[in-house]
Design goal:
Layout (H helix, E strand, L loop, with lengths): L2 H7 L11 E2 L14 E3 L8 E6 L3 E8 L3 E2 L3 E2 L4 E7 L2 E5 L2 E5 L4 E4 L5 E5 L5 E8 L7 E2 L4
Parallel strand pairs: 1-3
Antiparallel strand pairs: 2-3, 3-4, 4-12, 5-11, 6-13, 7-10, 7-12, 8-9, 8-11
Length: 143
């Protein structure tokens, strides 16, 4: 195998999420502070942060600015949202739930939901989804 072929063999496939970092073969450690900071929900959510995609999972460390709600939306893939700092509120089936640091939200695939950070400080959360689709979802008219 030539040097060019070896180089191509070690390149990662294109990320499903625009701007996300796709893990390349042999790449095992990622610094969320140094990889691309992307919008977590363009057009429906104010969150942003670093996102890394593998073959079967997508992980991201996101920041949710204080005082900003998201629009109702859904994702074709399921999602876990682990709260690291602040308190995040999420609405499912017309009911608002709140999670604090150390707690995790589970969002089933295709479940319409909405989030809000009504606190005075940003919320920081780690999220993980299956890689059947990208990180981004689809905006809905409302809940």
């Amino acid at each position: 195998m030539s040097a060019t072929q070896k180089s191509r063999a070690h390149k990662a496939p294109k990320a499903r999420t625009p701007g996300a970092k796709r893990a390349a073969p042999g790449e095992y450690v990622f610094d969320f502070q140094k990889i691309n900071q992307i919008p977590g929900g363009p057009g429906y959510s104010p969150v942003f942060g670093g996102c890394v995609e593998g073959e079967r999972m997508i992980v991201a460390l996101m920041r949710y600015p204080a005082g900003k709600p998201s629009d109702a939306h859904s994702h074709p893939n399921e999602q876990w949202i682990f709260i690291l700092e602040g308190e995040l509120e999420m609405q499912f089936d017309g009911k608002w739930l709140r999670a604090k640091p150390g707690q995790v939200f589970y969002v089933p695939a295709n479940k319409v939901h909405q989030a809000a950070n009504n606190g005075s400080k940003d919320v920081v959360f780690f999220t993980c989804t299956d890689a059947s689709h990208g990180l981004h979802g689809t905006r809905h008219a409302g809940l």
